[in-house]
TrEMBL record:
This is glycogen phosphorylase. Its cofactor is pyridoxal 5'-phosphate. It catalyses: [(1->4)-alpha-D-glucosyl](n) + phosphate = [(1->4)-alpha-D-glucosyl](n-1) + alpha-D-glucose 1-phosphate. Signal peptide: none annotated. Residues 13-120 form the DUF3417 domain. PANTHER family: GLYCOGEN PHOSPHORYLASE (PTHR42655). Keywords: Allosteric enzyme, Carbohydrate metabolism, Glycosyltransferase, Pyridoxal phosphate, Transferase. Pfam families: DUF3417 (PF11897), Phosphorylase (PF00343). Its EC number is 2.4.1.1. NCBIfam families: more_P_ylases.
Length: 872
């Protein structure tokens, strides 16, 4: 029989056990081994049944067992020690508190998904896991972050397989009262709400749930409240579900409602008000509009408010292709803003202009969330060096006239939160080697370029650890495979073969990720005979563990899953290759450590970063990857292999897959399997173990989320805070007025004459050429602009590469026609074809980049002809 109503019955803990409740409600337990061990010891069977979730565990432990623990002095001593450790973690000084003054008092970090722990399933893939790792690393470093997201009642889908291998989706209902969450309440005990106005006089209300991620509060908005109509209740039903209007409402609630939730949280708790707002991908971009509306309500006009908001905003793009960006119909967006809907004080035309695709090839009738994110943020970044380059090229049209390398999008390469992803066995080895505190600091704070102590670990210990992790994965795979086959309809009598699946002494390759086409799940199947030979090699076999989810609406991705599953179902190879459904954090934490090689073969350059290989590396797993994302940046033959790419512009996609698959097979046959199976004098694979050492010592410190968050603080958050403080209301008005004046006057700016002291078309290395440039500034003054000489080596089309920029100085005042003479030296510091040009840019001390206004003036063709532009 089915219940007609559901309650959550909370246990009443005896007084000595009350600290267990605080420990369970702070998600630090998800990356703190001592806390998890304490909960497990309370009731090992209940812990396993609760899936390692302390909140669910406390609801399962029998009262008699609680009474027994309340009188267990040894358990109480452990409880006191763990509770004291948490208190010290939450209140003590950490890295951020030891830095120089001037850092932001608080940073609000907005993301559509957060992967903190499997016990709070609010993520779909890499974006959410990255956001969760960002929060956890910020907590470890003491960075005063406030996370903001949505609470999805169905989370992302759970995946099973049909008998014929087709992906099936299930959406279990999540009860917030059974999750590690508390509801934010007003002083009178009523739930705190945020409200959004909808067209037609309707309203969207949302409650605010709080997840405590160590030191970092995470606010999650939930629209499933009784005051909403049925449609509005479903706004936060599932992650990345529904049609355009549903997604638009989700993103309005995340951005606009999220800012209101932050204001409410700070009002109720006294938390410092954020000076910096970080938009993690375009989904949360509307947060800038809400902050503009706040300032307009305080007396600023739109343009001044826009400048003030931009100064304190950071935007991170994770998307290497335009198709991955949310774009909405302009009319749909227009209906949801203005006098009859949300933000009535802002002209709808100004809202729509922020998301307009003004670059060549842009769609005039679409509203682009990433474009809005870039226009509302003074600082923007991609998530690896290569992705930063791809992003600059992708969005270069927003800064016409500038070369892609000058587009103001930098990069901060992602990292992963080592305490979450490093296997307990690896952590114990590190603790034995350097001590508990040094091991914790090395994994969380980072800061060292290498972990030299790895060199002192005996080869035998490393190899035994790798086998232990591989064996643990083999047992996990068999258990999950048995569960999957039962879900597919198989009886126990059919499943005896599973006991022989995988071998703890065989080279193990892992491949697990989302399944869009560009990640090429089935590239390994390109030549099935050759793959089969690798799997069944009599002396050097390999075994492969594969996992991944296709988007529910992506039938092409589902076909790829089915193709892989059907191959893995073949009785000839099913003991050597497996597909595990329902890939998530819990599976990943076993999968990464247990693999010897982590495979990644996307279409370059479509992988923005690809952090799964980082998590594998922290456990001594070697990477085998296309040079894309982070691997393009940090690959060395010392600790992995690069799959050659056939990415020429004219390459046929099928041919490209054939070439790159063949290269993958060659690497496995000729370099990887021989190295794994060869043995030295002590019977150990010496060269393989040395690669594991190099992975840990050289790569380990780089891939840390602690390194990533420190870079965000130093390079983005601190400058954004300084800019935010500089933009007082009066200063913001002045800057907005200056920009308007410069834009209006810019058509009158020109380069009228260029001359050089060079008398011949050749010159010697190290020589200096004098430049004299006459410019017309129209209604502007020399204080409004910078005149620059841009020089460097030139190609066959006289395009300057690897440019050097030198500002020229005015030589006197304007003449009667308003023209100003500029002078400066041009140093010829490179041999070969060399050239220069002149350009004029707007200049103001509060601009974060010379390209910020997207304005530039260069010499006309007539001026160029007499300037001696190229020296050969």
């Amino acid at each position: 029989m089915k219940a007609i109503r559901r309650f959550t019955v909370r246990p009443v803990l005896p007084d000595p056990l009350r600290p267990l409740s605080d420990l369970a409600r702070n998600l630090r337990w998800s990356w703190h081994a001592e806390t998890r061990d304490l909960f497990q010891s309370a009731d090992p069977e209940a812990w396993a049944a609760a899936g390692g979730d302390p909140v669910r565990l406390l609801g399962r432990v029998r009262p008699a067992r609680l009474a027994e623990l309340a009188g267990d002095r040894r358990f109480l001593r452990r409880l006191t020690a763990v509770a004291d450790d948490l208190d010290d973690y939450l209140t003590g000084e950490r890295w951020y508190q030891t830095q120089a003054d001037g850092l932001p008092a608080a940073i609000a970090y907005f993301s559509p998904e957060f992967g903190i722990t499997a016990a709070l399933p609010q993520y779909s893939g890499g974006l959410g896991i990255l956001a969760g790792d960002h929060l956890k690393a910020a907590s470890d470093l003491g960075v005063p972050l406030i996370g903001v997201g949505l609470l999805y009642r169905h989370g992302y889908f759970r995946q099973t397989l049909s008998r014929d291998g087709w992906q099936q989706e299930h959406y279990p209902v999540l009860d917030p009262n059974e999750l590690p969450l508390t509801q934010l309440k007003e002083p009178d005990g009523t739930p705190a709400h945020v409200r959004l106005a909808l067209p037609g006089g309707k309203e969207l209300r949302a409650r605010i749930w709080l997840a405590q991620v160590g030191r970092v509060p995470l606010l999650l908005l939930d629209s499933d409240v009784e005051e909403n109509d049925l449609v509005e209740r479903g706004v936060t039903d599932r992650l990345y579900g529904g049609g355009s209007e549903h997604r638009l409402l989700q993103e309005m609630l995340l951005g606009i409602g999220g800012v209101r939730a932050v204001r409410t949280y700070c009002r109720l708790t006294g938390h410092p008000v954020p000076e910096v707002f970080h938009t993690n991908e375009g989904h949360a971009g509307f947060l800038g509009l809400e902050r503009i509306a706040e300032l307009c309500a305080g007396g600023l006009d739109f343009d001044a408010a826009l400048e003030a908001v931009r100064a304190g905003t950071v935007f991170t793009t994770h998307t290497p292709v335009p198709a991955g960006i949310d774009r909405f119909d302009r009319d749909l967006v227009g209906r949801h803003f203005g006098p009859d809907a949300e933000l009535p004080g802002i002209d709808v035309r100004r809202v729509l202009e922020l998301g307009r695709e003004t670059y060549p090839g842009g769609e005039p009738n679409l509203f682009n969330m990433a474009v809005m994110g870039l226009r509302l943020a003074q600082r923007a970044n991609g998530v690896s060096l290569l992705h930063g380059q791809v992003s600059r090229e992708m969005f270069a049209g927003l800064w016409p006239g500038f070369d892609a390398e000058e587009v103001p999008i930098t990069s901060v390469t992602n990292g992963v939160h080592a305490p979450t992803w490093v296997a307990p066995e690896v952590l114990r080895m590190a603790t034995r080697q350097v001590g508990a505190q040094r091991a914790e600091d090395a994994l969380s704070v980072g800061g060292s370029e290498r972990w030299d102590s790895v060199e002192d670990i005996p080869d035998q210990d490393i190899w035994e650890l790798r086998r232990t992790l591989r064996e643990r994965l083999v047992l996990e795979v068999r258990e999950r495979l048995r569960t999957s086959w039962r879900q597919r309809g198989a009886g126990d009598a059919e499943l005896g073969w599973i006991d022989g699946v995988l071998d703890p002494d065989v080279l193990t390759i892992g491949f697990a990720r989302r399944v869009p086409s560009y990640k090429r799940l089935t590239l390994m199947l390109r030549d099935r005979d050759r793959l089969t030979e690798l799997l069944l090699h009599p002396d050097r076999p390999v075994q492969i563990v594969v996992a991944g989810k296709a988007h529910p609406a992506d039938d092409g991705g589902k076909r790829l899953v089915q193709e892989l599953v059907r191959f893995a179902d073949d009785p000839r190879v099913r003991h050597r290759i497996v597909f595990l459904p329902d890939y998530g954090m819990a599976m990943a934490q076993r999968l990464y450590p247990g693999c010897d090689v982590w495979l990644n073969n996307p279409l370059r350059p479509l992988e923005a970063c690809g952090t799964s290989g980082m998590k594998a590396a922290l456990n001594g797993c070697l990477n085998l990857s296309v040079l894309d994302g982070w691997w393009d940046e940090w690959f060395q033959p010392d600790f992995g292999w690069a799959i050659p790419t056939a990415d020429g512009a004219g390459t046929d996609p099928d041919h490209r897959d054939d070439v790159e698959a063949a290269a993958l097979y060659d690497l496995l046959e000729q370099r990887i399997t021989p190295r794994f199976y060869e043995r030295g004098r002590a019977g150990l694979p010496d060269r393989w173990i040395q690669m594991v050492r190099r992975t840990l010592s050289l790569l380990g410190p780089k891939v840390l989320a602690g390194r990533m968050v420190r870079e965000y603080v130093d390079r983005l958050y601190a400058p954004a805070a300084r800019a935010h403080r500089a933009l007082t209301p009066d200063t913001a008005r002045d800057l907005a007025g200056w920009k308007a004046r410069v834009r209006a006057a810019w058509p009158g700016v020109s380069v009228d004459h260029v001359e050089t002291t060079a008398t011949t078309p050749t010159a010697e290395l190290g020589a200096t050429v004098g430049l004299r440039v006459r410019v017309a500034l129209g209604e502007l003054t020399p204080e409004d602009v910078e005149v620059q000489a841009v020089s460097g080596r030139v190609d066959e089309q006289d395009r300057i590469t690897d440019a050097t920029v030198v500002p020229l100085k005015p030589a006197g005042t304007a003449d009667l026609e308003g023209r100003v003479l500029y002078e400066g030296p041009l140093s010829l510091d490179r041999t070969g074809p060399y050239g220069y040009t002149i350009r004029i840019l707007p200049a103001h001390p509060l601009l974060a980049s010379p390209a910020e206004l997207g304005l530039m003036t260069i010499p006309s063709e007539e001026v160029v002809e007499g300037a001696g532009v190229v020296l050969r």
